[in-house]
Amino acid sequence: MFSRRLDVAVIGGGIGGLCLAQGLKRAGVSVTVYERDRTADSRLQGFRLNIEPTGSVALHACLPPALWEVLVATAGDPGPGIGFLDERMRPLILIGQDRPDRDPLDPTTSEHAVSRVTLRKLLLAGLDDVVRFGKEFTGFARADDGKVTAKFADGTTATVDVLVAADGAGSRVWAQLHPAACRTALPAMAVAGKLFLTEENRRWLPERLLAGRNVFWPRQDFLFTAIFRRREDPAAITARLGDQVRALGLDPEHLLADSQDDDYVLWAFIMHRDSLPASFTSKAQGDPAAVRELLAERTIGWHPDLRRLLTASTPDTLYQTGFSAAEPLDRWETGNVTGLGDAVHHMPPVGGLGGNAALRDAHRLCAALAAADRGEEPLPQALRAYEADMLRHGFETVREVVRNTEAAITRSALKRSTARWFFRACGAVPPVGRAVFGER
After folding, report:
1. pLDDT, tens only, 104-149
2. Which among 25, 206, 284, 369 is least buried, having the fewest CB atoms inside 10 angstroms?
3. DSSP SS3 for 164
4. Would residue 1 count as lying in a domain?
5. How many whole angstroms separate alpha carbon 267 and alpha carbon 227?
6. Which of helix, strand or coil describes residue 363?
7. DSSP designation for 249
8. How many C-beta atoms surround the C-beta of residue 233 within 10 A?
9. Measured between alpha carbons, how far is 2 from 232 in angstroms, rounded to an integer?
10. 3-class secondary structure, 197
């Protein structure tokens, strides 16, 4: 046995860092999270995140059982499978539409459409003694005794056994640890928005858009839609789980305050940057009218309900972003500073794979640190095994997301026509569809 109790510092209070902190606290490992935001409400990210079984398993393992149950109750059901359609809403292939109902509490099979705001509140539950806000990380220094000291802008320091970079893309921790680490800008730009599900909107929205996730593969550009529809009404959640929520130190009304009108259709429209008007990038910043004008021009000939979805969405929900992806490092040496999620393997937000990869990292790193803390494995060996797995899975996911992004924005008419033909052929011949996409 290797007797060594650990003290862990996590830089960054995003979903990966907080999931790790929850897991370490549950395992009895000393952990502190240092977050540069001044308060828990400083950064409100309102778009949904689709938690796949990989992420569900991680959250189920790291969260206290009561918190997992509240998370499931406050999440939405993303719907069965996914549909691939053309711009006129004609199906190319529908995947997983007839799958049996799954127990949402079973992490190995369940998927959850979660509000990022609600998820962050839940991940912070019970961590009042763990999370330090207003702590801007500036650098670290290693000592010969195996310790590492984190430094902060307010002049304070923290000396620990393990320092974890969970501070997202552009991580300061990772930049110091691996100065050669870099990201590649992709020639893609996305605009995303929400259309809230009012009674009026429900009357004209096609059932396909209300059923779940959809990929639209037109002859130019790319559109993704997804539904966020809570499994339970907030009032029903409060009545059923109110005592449980309060026992976690949370106010049910505050927890659900951002979700009273949270049912919506999310959409993301992705374009090749070089195909945009030269004036658009600067003109569109903070100008919903410019965004709507561009989308209206690029969707001429599309199904009118799709065009209405894009132009009728709430103006203050429109969000514009470019894409980039981390480049894998050629050399790697394990030490007492490690990382997870976007700090290491940043990827475009296509398919929601980045969030699930961060949760997976948190789960695996938690298990490695807990084993070392219990004396079951030497710390260097535990971290070496974690990093090998994290790097393999993380950069495989980066490559997958980059391939999907490049396919979505390609301006090759041949490639786009071939992709549409391939999807349609898989939909027309069920055995082929099952072989390519799995269960339908």
Report:
1. 888 988 889 988 888 998 999 999 999 999 999 999 999 988 899 9
2. 206
3. strand
4. no
5. 9
6. helix
7. T
8. 12
9. 47
10. coil
Token pair, residue 119, equals: 């998820």
Q: Tell me how far the alpha carbon of residue 191 is from its chain's centroid.
A: 17
The dihedral of CA 408, 410, 413, 415: what is its sign? negative
Residue 298 belongs to a domain: yes
Q: What angle do CA 291, 293, 296 make, to 5 degrees?
A: 110
Query: What pTM was computed for the model?
Result: 0.93
Q: Where are the alpha helices (DSSP H) in 161-214?
A: 172-177, 199-204, 207-211
Residue 431, domain member (yes or no): no
Q: What residues make up the domain containing 114?
A: 7-409
pLDDT digits (tens, 9 = 90+) for 29-88: 999 999 998 887 766 555 788 999 999 999 999 999 988 988 998 888 888 889 999 999
Residue 168: inside a domain: yes
pLDDT tens across 178-226, in order?
A: 998 999 999 999 999 999 998 999 999 999 999 889 999 999 999 999 9
Q: Tokens in use for 103?
A: 């127990």
Q: What per-residue string of b and e applies to 17-37 under the rule 16 or more CB within 10 Å gives b?
A: bbbbbbbbbbbebebbbbbbe
Name which of 357, 350, 342, 440 is nearest 393 in CA terms. 357
Q: What is the number of alpha carbons within 13 Å of residue 209 lying toward its C-beta?
A: 29
Query: What token pair was written down for 151?
Result: 């430094």
How many independent structural domains does the chain possess?
1
Cβ proximity of 225 and 267 under 8 Å: yes
- Rounded alpha-carbon distances, angstroms, from residue 199 to 68, 203, 205, 260, 264: 31, 7, 10, 15, 12
User: Are 63 and 71 a contacting pair, CB within 8 Å?
Assistant: yes
With a CB cutoff of 8 Å and minimum separation 6, the contacts of 253 are: 238
For residue 78, the domain's CATH number is 3.50.50.60
Helix (H) or strand (E) holding 237: helix 234-247
- Give the contacts of 156 (CB within 8 A, at least 6 positions apart): 135
